[in-house]
């Protein structure tokens, strides 16, 4: 049985994961706990923390809040203000290559480059989500009735991807061939970027609020059902015409968070009752990582070597699961 090291946090865990060897837990109350060689805590925001995302190089955690501020916090407990929009509610952030950070409020998205320069991208409808492409400084902005792709480093024309409805969370496939959004309705929508071919992924009983790509992008795992719904993205047509895998099926609890293992085709599945299961794609073999707790699992993140999993819940429960029983 894996060993769990519980940690004390002060509220709803917005994001949990690792910065290199240090686990982090960012809470809605505004506190960030770093747990590595000892513990450090910082509270960069004046009030609540709304969103958090690790820098791609693992050097820090970028957070936004209802104070209109965007901070980069390090595992040593330091915090640097990197952007500010007074009186704005900043609840969407994304980390990109070369130290770029994107954030949004209302109909506007901004990208702050590592040298401090900022670029603004205006839209006709409110921004629902942000994501950087895996290669090149390209930003995807999900919005009502579709998504827009911008080249951050040039003034070239944007690419518009249309589909009726409200598009929220957004993600590129690791190979950059597909863009997928979670919709306000209980569905995903995707585009094959080579030809803007649409892809519909439906049948969810609840909204999809968590998704995670498997190594090399062969699969996209999602929450929103009583199992992790895992769509195949190999082949010329992506998930079209292929049935998804259903991993960790439970009749009495919805999946609220998913996190694909960084090396193997294995997934951590978090449920609305706080249970966490690990499931293998090939045969749906299951290992219990955490018994049910007080509330839904809100975030999970793997260490790069795949031996540890950081998790948090909606009721201030947090910890690190160590898959090696030698501690």
Biggest sheet record: 6 strands, antiparallel
Discrete helix count: 0
Q: Please give the number of β-strands.
A: 30
Approximate shape: globular
Question: In terms of per-residue confidence, which ranges show pLDDT below 50 for 5 or more consecutive residues?
Answer: none
Order of helices and strands: EEEEEEEEEEEEEEEEEEEEEEEEEEEEEE
Q: What structural class results from the helix and strand content? A: mainly beta
Query: Strand share of the residues?
Result: over 45%
Helix content bin: under 10%
Radius of gyration computed on alpha carbons: 19 Å
N-end to C-end Cα span: 12 Å
- In the sheet with the most strands, the strands line up as 14-15-16-17-18-19
Mean pLDDT: 95
